[in-house]
Amino acid sequence: MPGYRRWSGHDYEGWGYYLITFSTEPRRPILSRIENYKAVPTPCGEAMEAAWLKMAEECPQIALREYATMPDHFHGVVAMKPGSGHPLGWWVRRAKARATRAIHKLLGENGPVFHENFHDWVSVDAEMLDTFREYTAANPRRAQLRRENRHLLRTVRAAAHPRLAAAAPDLRWDCLGDLALLDYPVLLPIVVSRRADESERQRTIAGWCEQVQRGAIPIGGFISPGEKEALRAFSKIPRVRVIRMLPYGLKEWKPHGRQLENLAESRLLILSAFPEEVQGCNWDNCHRNNDLARAIADCRR
Question: How many domains does the chain have?
Answer without folding.
Answer: 2
